[in-house]
Design goal:
heterotrimer; A mainly alpha (about 250); B alpha/beta (about 250); C mainly alpha (about 300); B: alpha/beta; Rossmann fold; 2 domains; 9 helices; C: about 300 residues; mainly alpha; 3 domains
């Protein structure tokens, strides 16, 4: 684990040097900051605006950052052939893969904290300090971002960058729509089709589980029970993703 | 005593539509402790494939690899191996010492010893003055030298070097050669691949000649020259390859 | 290496507890009202497909346009926007409440103010009419419509039956001036009279639209007091439709609600002739911040049978 951590830290520091990261972060701040511009609305409406824009901004830009940082985590090592030197050291392929994963977690965490702090600052400025519901929403967004990043990382263990980026974005959209597929399954009479939709519903990550922001901004309280269940879902799904990634990194010839 | 034993090592690359490309075919050779062993061959002959198989980067189709009595995936074995890849490229935002420290930590070398060793190695490869320079500002020669330092960070028993003098100027080549001889004196075993024949001639105790994935010849240089009635290494090289191309036989 | 396949095997096995957990999460979503009721309207599914997680944001941006249309008087343009916002985020109570208010109150009042201008204009036109019978007919219609407009703004009940009566009356007025349509010299009179007759019709249109909008909002927010109260209040205050007011205010009290809802219900009972219910309702408010009002109301109702002015 220590070796994975060393690799992860190195990967994190390398990510800090990527220009894409800063461009996305600046755009995110601009978008979140723009939510303050609706001062002609009533206080309640303005607050809703700030929350809607900020939550969506953190989720969307967080996802973009997660995908772009994870995309080249492995392929850049192969392209630059630094992977050969790494694998000649006394580390296993699992050390390498887990290390890369830790690196991504760190970079996602850093960006998430920066954006969340900015958002929280805005709320405090508007004399409406964040309550526990805001905190719950942010927790779930963070778990979602880790999932998104780890999926891109896993796909990178066996596919090209071009395929990976298309697949990652496709899965991001589909992952938000999967619950509608389930509703379709409930309404269908055909057993085979029903089974197919249900299987798809289980296998594809359900990002909507983590989306409580629409409800929180209109004042619906979400219980800790729901947060716990969704958190466990996230962890289990993460385990599935990482196991698949471990399988492919072990198998791969470089 | 053999520190490296390669037995009937074969690597096929399976491309689509039943196309098979031979990476290595039934290659067997041994490297003795304390010698410098050279692998020669034209581009695409399988030299790098052989080295990658030895480091566990590629998986063999068949055959056995034994390094210090362990297989190529053994973690403990890798603690005693140093590797310099061809055209080394590193994390360009790191400085020389930072790179050495990164690799050193992977060997779980205690911090105090690691720091001392980094200082010593930087002097050895003459990069002490460029301590604060980031690797992205290094010249090709400097990258080779820091790579060499990185391969020595764990004070390995075995050094595996893939084209160590590519991109070096004549003085650089001489210095590298002298260093290799010095390391051999210290008891290290060195396996290097190269297509610079003059280098190999001056430094290697024994050689192996590869061509199109096949091992054409192996042994002491002067013995091979006699055997093939060659005038020198270059001639030996040309003759063995020509013979293979004609007959397609393995010696 | 040999045991690499175990990783995939475990990954597949983990999908089983994930599947069960998802079922549990879906159940929690239903119970905690976190589910998006997407398939209630086919169009909503399309919107959700396009916007996925950003519906709330889109709703906000559309809401900005509502303000613009309101301030520039483009009232009719507000309608599709309000529908769109409610479409995107049906649990956003404010949209329904404010939308309903805009329609039943503000636009209603705006339309009503047009009547004064038209009335003045008609006065000037009538001065120049020489034909006595036409002048008398036109003056009668003008006065009747003005009375209807005043009534609608104040005490006229707007129950379904009454609304039908008002519309029938307006249609009758249209018929009476129909003969002027083809007479060139009376074009101005005809057009101005038509516009005036249209005023109460439009007022009623906006009032009923506001009611419908709130009712639609209720279908998405059945388990909250808010929109039942808004609708009940609109029936009570604007529509003077006390039976419906009582109906919806009673529904509002079935959910957690603030005290003023009980207060309004008590008034509504009284206006609806249910004095006993009104007294009972006021009694519920003893011990709350409405206690002093409640005591006076109970006393007044018991002695005179009247409290609400």
């Amino acid at each position: 684990m220590r070796k994975a951590w060393i690799i992860g830290l190195n990967s994190f520091k390398e990510s800090l040097r990527k220009k894409t990261l800063y461009i996305l972060l600046v755009v995110a701040f601009v978008v979140i900051g723009a939510s303050k511009a609706f001062s002609w609305l009533t206080a309640e409406e303005e607050l809703k605006m700030i929350k809607d824009i900020s939550f969506s901004g953190i989720e969307f830009f967080g996802a973009l950052i997660a995908i772009f940082m994870s995309l080249t985590a492995i392929s850049s090592e192969i392209e630059k052939r630094t992977i050969y030197t790494l694998f000649s050291k006394p580390i296993t392929r699992q050390n390498f893969f887990v290390g890369k994963f830790l690196g991504i977690v760190l970079i996602i965490l850093l960006n998430f904290i920066l954006m969340s702090l900015f958002f929280t600052g805005l709320l405090i400025f508007k004399k409406s300090p964040p309550d526990v519901q805001v905190f719950k929403t942010l927790i779930l967004i963070f778990i979602e971002l880790i999932l998104i990043g780890s999926i891109t990382l896993t796909v990178a263990t066996f596919a090209s960058d071009a395929f990976n980026i298309i697949f990652s974005f496709f899965l991001y959209i589909v992952g938000h729509l999967t619950s509608y597929g389930n509703q379709l399954a409930d309404r269908t009479e055909n057993v085979i089709l029903k089974g197919f939709w249900k299987l798809l519903y289980t296998v594809i990550p359900n990002y909507e589980n983590f989306n409580i922001r629409d409800k929180v901004v209109v004042g619906i309280d979400v219980t800790w029970n729901y947060i716990l269940k969704t958190g466990i879902y996230g962890i289990l799904y993460l385990a599935v993703i990482l196991l698949i990634g471990s399988y492919f990194i072990q198998k791969r010839e470089i | 005593m053999n520190v490296i034993e390669i037995k009937e090592l074969t690597k096929y690359y399976y491309l689509g539509r039943n196309r098979i490309v031979v990476g290595l075919e039934n290659v067997s050779f041994n490297v003795e402790e304390g010698e410098i062993y050279g692998i020669l061959g034209p581009n695409g002959s399988g030299k790098t494939t052989c080295l990658k198989l030895m480091l566990g980067i590629l998986y063999p189709t068949s055959g056995e690899i034994s390094i210090l009595g362990k297989n190529q995936f053994d973690i403990e074995m890798k603690k005693n191996v140093g590797f310099l890849p061809e055209n080394p490229y590193y994390y360009d935002y790191l400085t020389g010492p930072e790179l050495l420290k990164f690799y050193g930590k992977l060997f779980e070398i205690p911090e105090k010893i690691l720091n001392e060793r980094i200082e010593k190695l930087l002097f050895l490869v003459k990069l002490h003055e460029s301590k604060k320079l980031a690797l992205r500002h290094y010249s090709k020669g400097m990258l080779e030298r820091i790579g060499l330092a990185a391969s020595l960070i764990n004070d390995p028993k075995i050094l595996i070097l893939d084209e160590p003098t590519t991109g070096l100027d004549p003085i650089g080549c001489i210095e590298t050669r002298d260093l290799l001889i010095q390391l051999r004196k210290e008891g290290k075993t060195i396996l290097l691949s190269s297509h610079f024949l003059s280098e190999v001639e001056r430094v290697c105790d024994r050689i192996a000649i590869f061509h199109r994935g096949y091992l054409l010849a192996t042994g002491k240089l002067n013995e091979l020259i006699q055997k093939y009635n060659a005038e020198g290494l270059e001639d030996l090289f040309v003759k063995t390859i020509a013979e293979f191309d004609k007959k397609g036989e393995i010696q | 290496m040999k045991r690499n396949w175990i990783r995939i095997f475990i990954a597949i096995l983990l999908l089983i507890p994930i599947g069960f957990l998802q079922v549990s999460i879906d159940y929690s979503k239903q119970v905690e009202n976190l589910e998006s009721q997407i398939l209630l309207m086919p169009g909503q599914m399309a919107g959700s497909l396009i916007l996925s997680g950003f519906k709330g944001l889109a709703a906000d941006l559309l809401w900005l346009n509502i303000e613009n249309y309101w301030h520039s008087g483009q009232h009719y343009k507000m309608l599709p926007l309000l529908d769109a916002i409610a479409w995107l985020q049906p649990t956003y109570i404010v949209v329904w409440a404010v939308g309903g208010w805009h329609m039943s109150y503000n636009i209603f009042a705006n339309v009503r103010s047009r009547a004064n201008t038209l009335d003045e204009e008609l006065g000037k036109i009538l001065q120049e009419i020489k034909d006595k019978s036409i002048k008398d007919t036109a003056t009668k219609i003008k006065d009747d419509i003005k009375e209807l407009v005043e009534g609608l703004s104040r005490e006229y009940t707007k129950t379904e039956d009454k609304i039908k009566e008002y519309i029938d009356f307006a249609n009758l007025c249209y018929k009476k001036i129909d003969f002027l349509k083809d007479k060139k010299e009376y074009q101005k009179l005809y057009n101005t009279l038509s516009d005036l007759i249209n005023v109460p019709v439009e007022m009623i249109f906006w009032y009923t639209n506001g009611i419908s909008f709130l009712k639609k909002g209720i279908t998405y927010n059945k388990d909250r007091y808010d929109l039942y109260f808004e609708l009940g209040w609109t029936y009570y205050h604007k529509g003077k439709d006390y039976p419906n007011a009582v109906r919806y205010l009673e529904k509002a009290t079935k959910f957690p609600h603030p005290e003023f809802v009980d207060d309004v219900l008590a008034h509504a009972y009284e206006k609806n002739g249910q004095i006993d219910m009104a007294i009972k309702q006021w009694e519920k408010l003893i011990g709350t911040s409405f206690e002093s009002v409640a005591q006076r109301a109970i006393h007044s109702l018991k002695t005179t049978g009247k409290f609400t002015p």
